[in-house]
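Q: How would the structure tokens look for this protein?
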Amino acid sequence: RPPRGGIAGTAVVAVAATSLLWLLPQTCEAWLQRVEGDDPLNPNCVQRGDDYADLRDVKIHAIVYAGRRQYLEILNAYLERDLRRNGGVLDTVLFAMVKYTHDDLRYLAQLRARNVGSYIIPQIEGGGWDVVWRLAEDPDAYYLKIDDDVVYIAEGAIAELVREKRRGRFLFVSANVVNHGIISAVHQELAQLRWLAAPAMPATDWKYKGDIILDPRFRIEHTFYSDCIWRRWDCAALAHENLLHRLEDGTSCAFDFGVYDFHAHGYGTMSDGLPGGRSIDWNDNFFAFKGEDFSDIDWDGVAMDDEAEMSTKHPQRRNQHAAALGRALVAHFSFSVQER
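A: Here is the predicted structure in token form.
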């Protein structure tokens, strides 16, 4: 497999994400279900087969904020695996081209030619962020919003998100996102992150030091603009390395926390601390929704700040909650500030 390394700066995050190439669909195991054993921090992960029979007549589409090729080359393998025609549940993938070069566009055109009818590059009018969300035009269909720098999607994750959304308990259902402003803190609070130390030499494994992180430099604050995770590349690298470590020893189901309610304590409970600043309750890197959920949305608000609208304002106006599903494990490569 590709080596995992400890070089400086964002390159550590890049090495961790590149290592996920080893885990691309041709080598993925079946969906892993958590089964409690003697050790609550290291549960048994049992393979569970799934033919998605309950979703055969359900329309499911993905909307990808695209399209940086360096990330899409990784994400694409998971998307193709999960196409309905390949045995998955996705009917189509709509690539909303919001950040790209001519090379990125040529690459995506090649992917579309390989997945005729399943991969769609829709025409998008100029404007705010609302033009992307308006692609969810079928009120009866289920949609997955996916950032293009998602570098791992566990098998069955998309199906599980749609199933939870269909239960009608939550307005939006987020995946269990590794390297996430809020969920990473939950991972640490539930002792799901192992204490791994970066190596002194590049291209060598991170050293396991224990099940509990005792290094005070890696305390993940429970807020969307945290220092450790949102701002720091080394915290992002630690999160990715933990995923790789657990995938390697077959305990990735330890990340399954059941369901985490983002709005259990209300709405807009966190702020960036700036006058007239921003407040969001969760990062919308990867989540499920239904077309009809936008029937009364504030499109002007979406155009200005879609993440604030989706994570806080729209659920509050509807008096509905959003939640993360523990069994739907994915990995988000980086926030832009981490890459600096």
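The longest strand covers residues 322-332.

The longest helix spans residues 233-249.

Upvote if useful.
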